[in-house]
Amino acid sequence: MADNEQNQQWLSYRPDIKVLDCTIRDGGLINQHYFEDGFVKAIYDCNVAAGVDYMELGYKGDKSIYIPTEHGPWKHCDEDTIRRIVGENPSDLKLAVMADADRSDYHNDILAKQDSVIDLIRVACYIHQIPLALDMVKDAADKGYEVMLQLMAISTVQPGELEAALEAASKSDASGVYIVDSFGALYSEQIRKLMNIFKSVLGDCGKEVGIHAHNNQQLAFANTIEAIVCGANRVDATLAGLGRGAGNCPMELLLGFLHNPKYKLRPVLACTQEVLFPLSRKMDWGYSIPYALTGQLNQHPRMAIACRASEAPDDYVAFYDRLMDEYS
Questions:
Q1: What is the number of other CB atoms lying within 10 angstroms of the CB of residue 325?
Q2: pLDDT of residue 12
């Protein structure tokens, strides 16, 4: 490829790429989704001003599992709670919620679209939950929603299982399927291979591919870029990378990379400065060595989360030894 052509590609943008902000949903995993209305409204206003395409407000969690007195309102995203923030949502920003397989009373808690301000339902599942997840996809689509399927812990899935799951998803009502690097374990080469598999199975049926990356090894942004270069059109990010454990792909980096003039960086910087920075003094997220170690081992970060909450959050050697005892 000539230098001129490479430069033209770098300076252009793909208008079909859609950005989803999951600051409240993923960040809520740190504090049981106890975000005050003013905080959620600030993130909403920021996304509207920044031209972000979707905002994920939280979960549709089953109240018999996630007791309302023990979890904040964004674990359940009741309609009146959402409307308290957005009213009728008089903006171009679309609203999303996530429903976990086996942890959502989706038949009852997800209303018909005509009765809801929500636009998108994201169904999240592990590979063994595909049959249930596809029923959830159908339920949401039948109710009038756009639906996406999130394949969690993709770094633990065997290729044969993945292709079978994608084949089933290709026949579903999902608009697309996300690669979810739940453990922040993947490298760019693996993202490239996964994108090739996803596109080979889903491309002919017109379904989009998305990426949700965690930052355990400081690769969330790099892996998101790799997925975009390989053809992903749906990408997740959070303000200041807020999210469970090591956090997610930072919104401020992603919008700068995309070059799309519809996205405005200044509102993101202002919200990060005024809202997220003060929060960082109260909540712990972002890259640290314990998260890097669980990412390298392709393990759930729960042990690293416990370490960061302990009296010795920076005793990396002791944590490393515990990991070796647990997984060797």
A1: 8
A2: 77
Pairing of strands 146-151, 94-100: unpaired
Instruction: For residue range 197-241, list pLDDT tens digits in order.
Output: 999 999 889 999 999 999 999 999 999 999 999 999 999 999 999
Model confidence pLDDT, tens digit, residues 240-261:
999 999 999 999 999 999 999 9
Q: What pLDDT is recorded for position 106?
A: 98
User: Phi and psi for 235 in degrees, rounded to 5?
Assistant: -135, 140
> What integer pLDDT is reported at residue 11 of this predicted model?
64
Task: Please name the residue that has the structure tokens 């000539």.
Answer: 2
Q: How far apart are CA 47 and CA 33, in angstroms?
A: 19
Sequence-distant (6+) residues with CB within 8 A of 92 are 48, 51
For 138-184, the DSSP string reads HHHHHTT-EEEEEE-SGGG--HHHHHHHHHHHHTSS-SEEEEEETTS
DSSP secondary-structure letter at 276?
I
Homologous superfamily of 3-279 in CATH? Aldolase class I (3.20.20.70)
Domain with CATH 3.20.20.70 in the chain: 3-279
Residue 314: predicted pLDDT: 92
Task: Return phi, psi of residue 149, to 5°.
Answer: -105, 130
Closest C-alpha among 305, 22, 17, 33 to residue 183: 305
